Amino acid sequence: MFDKNTKIGRIVSQPEFQGYEYMTGKFPGIGGVFSGMLKLSTMCRIVGTWNADSMADGMNYLLERAKAGKVFYDIYSEEERQSDPGKRRTGIAAFPLEEKRPFVVVCAGGGYSSVCSMVEAYPVIRQLNLMGYAAFSMQYRCGKDAAAPNPMDDLAKAVQFILEHAEELHVDPEGYAVMGFSAGGHLAASFGTERLGWKHYGLPAPAALILSYPVITMGEKTHPGSRKLLLEKNAQPAVQEMYSIERQVTTHYPPAYVWQFDHDNLVPVENSAMIAEALQKQHIPCQYETFPGTIHGAGLGTGTACDGWLERAAAFWASQIERTNTT
Length: 327
Hints:
By secondary structure, the chain is α/β, with parallel strands linked by helices.
């Protein structure tokens, strides 16, 4: 069992994770000799906003599920992965339930430089399963492979894979949601657009989006690191506008639950306010919450002002499924 005093290197090197170490949610610097020797609690003190106990709970849950059966799935064929080696570091970790339930795809953040599933996906997925929802953690291309449209290609491929394997993965294909944190929130928000996301890939629209302290704009109030990796040298005004999601909201954008700390110390709170305002203008259901504080990367937010956001987000998602079923 892992706890807050477990060294990160021990978590990543579990035999059940071998071949899919990248799916454990390693964050920048993890994997080196020094960082691998750090305890979860030490890393969280360095970062200042992560919760070591919830991270340990999430990784224990991942290990428990991996011991019980197949968890990790490649979303691309071997031929596709040979043609683009970056695709070898993509995939999903599956957490279905015994009863077929609507599913949510969770995109952890990391500034498009990494995918911090250890922080934001697995702790949240454990709670989602306890609440009766199926969930998948999404590993999309990042770092040197983050240039658009690669991350969106990966998310769309993951949704397509889950829908096509709904019986095998034991999920209800109707009423799915996409959840994203920070840069993963930008990816999830982008998936909601017709121009960049679900419609572009010929997929059904999500019943709801859940956007946690998301990067939304590529303009003045963006997170510069996310913009640099996603857009590379294509940051001309027209490209920035295309990937500024507040400018891409149409009447067919999915309903969204959006939240952020009101003095977020990494992604300006104007980002979440922009998407909420854009949704309001299009009369799209939106539940928007801000909480007092400067925290970015809160994940579950246990013990902070945002504690309980996940239950409210799940209730919002359920209400949108019900609304769809009655119209």
